[in-house]
Amino acid sequence: MKKTYDRKAFKRKLQSRKLTVIVIIRFVMILLAGYPLLASAGERNTPREESHRVKGKVVDRKGVPLPGVTIRLDSTTVGSVTGQDGTFVLLLPEREGVLVFSFIGYETVRVKYSGENTPLLVTLKEKVSALDEVTVIAYGTQNKREVVGAMSTVKGEDLEDIPSPSLANLLQGRVAGMNVLNTTGAPGGGGISVIIRGFNSLSIESSRRGSEPLWVIDGVPMLSFTSPVTGTNTLADIDPNDIESVQVLKDAASAAIYGSRAANGVILVTTKKGRLNQRAKVSVNMSRTFIFDPALPDITGGHRERLHRLEALRDYQQAAYNGETNTYEYVAGYKDSYLNRLQYDYFWNMGDGANVAPYQDSLNKFYNNSTNLFDYYFRTAKVTDASLQLSGGSVGMTYNVGIGYYDESGVLRNTGFGRVKILGNFCMIPFPKLEANMRFYLARAERKRSSREINRYGFTTGAELEQIPEELLNTSTVLPGPGNAAFDELVKRFET
Fold this sequence. Notes:
By secondary structure, the protein is of the alpha+beta class. It is 19% helix and 31% strand. The protein folds into 3 domains: 72 residues, Immunoglobulin-like, CATH 2.60.40; 228 residues, Ferric Hydroxamate Uptake Protein, Chain A, domain 1; 66 residues, no CATH class. Strands 10-15-16-13-14 form a 5-stranded mixed beta sheet, with no helix packed on it. Strands 17-20-21-22-23 form a 5-stranded antiparallel beta sheet, with no helix packed on it.
């Protein structure tokens, strides 16, 4: 049976299928659109979690708003930060609790809140911490990290346990750029020069004296110089055990108060003081130090020295032949006498010149002595340093009282230095903004020195340097030793 195409029937089929597709799509869209309604209906059946509103403001101690303060509900991660005006608003799940406020540079604060709508006012305090040590400068105090000038600091504990009467000696090698020149090692610290900012003259002596810095002891200016009467340096009157700190100012900050006197720099010395609300503290320091003899020269003494002297006396009367000049020459000293002892002409030796009579050593014990004067004039020096300090304070007063004793005997006889001192630092604070300070320092220094002082060509004064007696090289060792009147008379010349 042959099938024929019926256009109308085919069109009716397509229309019926299209209708079916449209119906299905509409049904799906209606179903999806109705899903939120079902979900909303489900949510209405579930109870919603309640939130509580908390607001407030954060300021500092002066009432200035603090922006950026972190606010957090204690033991949770719920939190926020304050705005530019320091205010905040929080929605918290709990009606009551504790809020934690934290900010850099301020102490953390914990504040309780309740369900009331009263705004909170939170005040944060600055967090005080010792970021660095406090440094004394010419016009006050600053933290060391804030100081941009050329300055060095030496603490008092770095200067302890060193047997030296002079503060300048203790600073040697401890401050960068500081030159400490010691022109003498005599007890008492005489002849010491401290240079910070270089020399300001081409003349050696005037540059050394005119280039020293200004010393300021607890606010009192003092110049470092060697006394022409006692030969001691003024810094030797200060006991290093009483020093709290030393600041060396090298740049323009040193001229902030002291002006032209600080052209060569300023050295600020701060003595020890008591502390508020501190119990009485007793500090005792005692030390005993020995300084041994230096390396002494080897000498020819006794019988050997006498033979050299006799040979020299004999050769002084004779002339030695000099082959280079073809002449006879007289000796000029012991050295020439010894070197030319084999060159003396036989004719001159046996001629008319008077010969020195030989001494019989075995019959005269005086010439058998061998007294080493170096061993007597040099000695083992002893240094005794003792100090006692009492410090403390109460609510409105601090105190520090100290006494000290220092005694040093030099390696040369008839040299030495002694010091007795007493120190008192008192501070009373009757009112919060009123402070009264009273300080006193009494010292008595004494230096032993001989009259053999160098003062040649204007390079130094006699009070700064002492010379070793020439008698040590010229006096014969055949003289009797200690316990003899001749020896006692000899040593008097050493000590005067």
